[in-house]
Amino acid sequence: RAGKREACSCSSSFLLAEPQATGKEQAMWYVAQVQAGREASTRDLCRSLVSPDVLEECFMPEYETMWRIGEWRLVKRLLFPGYLFFVTSDAEELNKELLRVPMPIRLLGNEENSFFPLTEKEQDWFLSFMDGEHIVRMSEGYIKGDKVTVTRGPLMGFEGDIRKIDRHKRRAYLDVTLFGRTVPASVGLEVVRKTA
Q1: Are 14 and 27 spatial neighbours (Cβ–Cβ below 8 Å)?
Q2: CA 124 → CA 16, 21, 81, 148, 159, distances in Å?
């Protein structure tokens, strides 16, 4: 559903633990609804048409999982199909600049053009799971009885957040909090063994 992954020329400067003093307001993360299936092309248009003074970064979080195409292969899928993430210190100006992009884009907020950034806690969740390319890498673990233990990858230490595992599809299902709502997400988890 996500299509092919294009080369990412992402700047990961906003992933630093401490914000850099630039004389501007601190950049916040915002989410926009876009046309599903056109996330990559919309992201690329935003990067080329929106002023870098306004848009620090635009990305679509992805996750690695195993997919059977004759044989099992590692592939990337969108974490939230139909959404892009924007990093800016001026959401109002970003919204004006997005009008230049010939694709449907709607920053999430209320009807009065007040846009809601992700909370610091929500940003921290993404930063703890994604790498500098905005990808949640594949995790690996085992199941003993009904207890999951993750031995490698971003799910390590977050076993309590897993609500369901599909061993056949090699995925773990989580509930992520965005804007005070619980949103389902799936990430890659290879269960190497299961014992009673």
Answers
A1: yes
A2: 11, 20, 21, 23, 17
Average pLDDT score over residue span 7-14: 33
Name 122's Cβ contacts closer than 8 Å, sequence gap at least 6.
29, 177, 178, 179
The CA distance from 100 to 105, in Å, is 10
Please tell me the predicted confidence (pLDDT) of residue 11.
33
**Of 68, 82, 89, which is closest to residue 25 (Cα–Cα)?**
89
Tokens of 25: 């307001």
Predicted confidence at residue 12, as pLDDT, reads 32
* pTM (whole model) above 0.90: no
C-alpha to C-alpha distance for 181 and 188, rounded to whole angstroms:
23
Element holding 128 (H helix, E strand): helix 120-129
Q: Is the pLDDT score of 122 beyond 80?
A: yes
Which pLDDT score is estimated for 148? 94
Return d(Cα 22, Cα 88) in angstroms, integer. 13
